[in-house]
Amino acid sequence: MSTDASPSQAPPHPRADFQFYPAIDVRDGRVVRLAQGDYARETRYGGTPLHVAQDYSRQGAQWLHLVDLDAARAGGYTLLPLLEEIARSTGLNVQTGGGVRARDDVARILDAGARRVVVGSLAVREPDTVLGWLAEFGSDRITVALDTRQDGQGAWRLPVHGWTETAAETLDALAERYAAAGLVHLLCTDIARDGMLSGPNLSLYAHLHARVPALAVQASGGVSAVGDVAGARDAGCAGIVLGRALLEGRFTLAEALAC
């Protein structure tokens, strides 16, 4: 399978409803970034998670992508007090996850003020469970996050268990299954680009947009310059997660919004 569009396929149309998701990854109470999801390759940044969120709000953000890295590895979402304070003090729409394993996790996170709950590994391992949550909580309250890696034959695979094993189902097949069941929001990360500032995989996102045009795809991984934002929008994405590039001042949120 190739991610390149066929000669007869029209290029995707940029979406008018494009959203920006400044990201805050939290580990041991600190703002951090991991390179390619590796906990041994962590970079720490100044400022508390709350202060960083408040700063993004002052810069004009409407959304925040908040990740509980401790829970992502051990299970059991731990950021409820922080989530409540961010929602109360900033008014940001918060999309958050990490360690979401059970229905009660979803309910508690929504009750604490989240706009959407992000479900990652469980969405690959137990799609029927997550489809049930979509039906119960509403299709706009769940974001399915799929981390993907391209194999030697060009297929996009779905590594699980800390990216040490690979699920049988491909990205294409699982995305189509969720779209058919009414999923709206899909966050897709090319593992090879995550935290590497090498640019997002635009061919992957153009491929996804062509394959499942009903999904609002969020690009994640590799963003390093303002031009990457425009590229993701032109590839048909509905939004983009901005992590390391903002934290390191490679461009400002205002510059991204202007783009």
Name the features:
259 residues; alpha/beta; two-stranded antiparallel ribbon; 11 helices
What do you see in this structure?
By secondary structure, this protein is α/β, with parallel strands linked by helices. Helices cover 35% and strands 26% of the residues. The protein has helices spanning 49-58, 69-74, 80-90, 103-111, 121-125, 127-137, 171-180, 202-211, 226-234, 244-247, 253-258, and strands spanning 19-27, 30-35, 38-45, 63-68, 93-97, 116-119, 142-150, 156-157, 159-160, 165-166, 185-190, 216-220, 239-242.
CATH homologous superfamily descriptor: Aldolase class I
Global geometry:
globular
CATH fold group: TIM Barrel
Class from secondary-structure proportions: alpha/beta
What percent of residues are in strands? Answer: 25-35%
**Element-level helix/strand string:** EEEHEHHEHEHHEEEEHEHEHEHH
The total count of helices amounts to: 11
The CATH class is identified as Alpha Beta
What percentage of residues falls in helices of 4 or more residues? 25-40%
Strands, total number: 13
**N- and C-termini, Cα separation:** 32 Å
- Average pLDDT figure: 91
Strand order of the largest sheet: 1-4-5-6-7-11-12-13
What CATH architecture label applies?
Alpha-Beta Barrel
Radius of gyration: 17 Å
Structurally, the number of domains stands at 1
Low-confidence stretches: 1-10
The major sheet is characterized as: 8 strands, parallel, barrel
Catalytic activity: 1-(5-phospho-beta-D-ribosyl)-5-[(5-phospho-beta-D-ribosylamino)methylideneamino]imidazole-4-carboxamide = 5-[(5-phospho-1-deoxy-D-ribulos-1-ylimino)methylamino]-1-(5-phospho-beta-D-ribosyl)imidazole-4-carboxamide
Protein name: 1-(5-phosphoribosyl)-5-[(5-phosphoribosylamino)methylideneamino] imidazole-4-carboxamide isomerase
InterPro entries: Aldolase_TIM, His_biosynth, HisA/PriA, HisA_bact_arch, Isoase_HisA-like, RibuloseP-bd_barrel
Active site: 25, 147
